């Protein structure tokens, strides 16, 4: 019996999943974060070891050797860190073959099982990836919080901070402003800035997103304007990707990432925006609306997608680079 291992390495946790030759899940386990752009080598090793050991234990396997292991990781574009992670993968996992891919690729295969469509990952950052019926692929965004990540949790948190600072400058307050001040513990503008820059991290800024989403769900107009703006930014990303791949308008779009938990309003605005804004901040209609998007729940998670790739699906040269030495 040959065993195959799929690994989903993200900024929050690492998930390992073992399947047999028929693709049947045998066991899975979790470890610490393994975004290779932000996690040091020691933590990466511990995350790999913990997740694979937990999956092996769940599968009833003791020190298994795998026919193939496929890892999808955040931070894939950093070549030096990717090479370092590949070396760690060789050390921590006993396998005949090793593959490392971008996290959005494994997420796509898990969500769609390889069928034509688009996966939109919106959490702290944001990226979209799609594949058409001819097997052609394309990625949009995923450039990080400084150059891209349009419609991300970081993007939404930053907009909420700007809105709060503007209200404070005008000596005005509202429900959204008060919520942001409670979250940051700030009372004056300088303390908002200290909260942002004193211990800066994209995830810390993105931590504001859930409270904005909660207010939007409750009908707060200012929060709805910000949430709608994020939904439209993601729509722009998906529309560009769909046009590049010449996918039909009813191509399925699979949502992944924490931002999609903001609530029904956010999803509705992504599918077909209708919110016109509020008195302090109106929103212009989209110039290229792109019609109603077909939002479907993913069929599987990214760890399953990595396991499917480990099984040896015919993906083409772009998706399946040569295994590291």
What does this structure look like?
The strands form three sheets. The chain has a five-stranded mixed β-sheet. Strands 8-7-6-9-12 form a five-stranded mixed β-sheet, sandwiched between helices. Helix 3 crosses helix 11, helix 4 (153-169) crosses helix 5 and helix 9 packs across helix 10 (264-271). Helix content is 42%, strand content 18%. It starts with a strand and ends in a 15-residue tail after the last helix. The longest helix has 25 residues, at 221-245. The chain is built from eleven helices and twelve strands. The chain has helices at 41-59, 79-92, 103-112, 153-169, 175-184, 189-198, 202-206, 209-217, 221-245, 264-271, 302-310, and strands at residues 4-9, 14-19, 25-31, 68-73, 98-102, 117-122, 126-131, 137-141, 252-256, 277-278, 281-282, 294-295. It is α/β, with parallel strands linked by helices and 325 residues long. It folds into two domains: 4-113 and 300-310, Nucleotidyltransferase, domain 5; 117-295, 2-Layer Sandwich (Nucleotidyltransferase, domain 5). Mean pLDDT is 90; it is low at 314-325.
| CATH first level of the largest domain | Alpha Beta
Largest sheet, in brief, is: 5 strands, mixed
Strand proportion, as a percent range, falls in: 15-25%
Secondary structure: number of strands: 12
- Give me the CATH architecture of the largest domain, please: 2-Layer Sandwich
CATH topology (fold) name of the largest domain: Nucleotidyltransferase, domain 5
In the predicted model, the low-confidence regions spanning at least 5 consecutive residues are 314-325
SS summary, helix count: 11
Question: What's the overall geometry?
Answer: globular
Secondary structural class: alpha/beta
CATH superfamily of the largest domain: ATPase, nucleotide binding domain
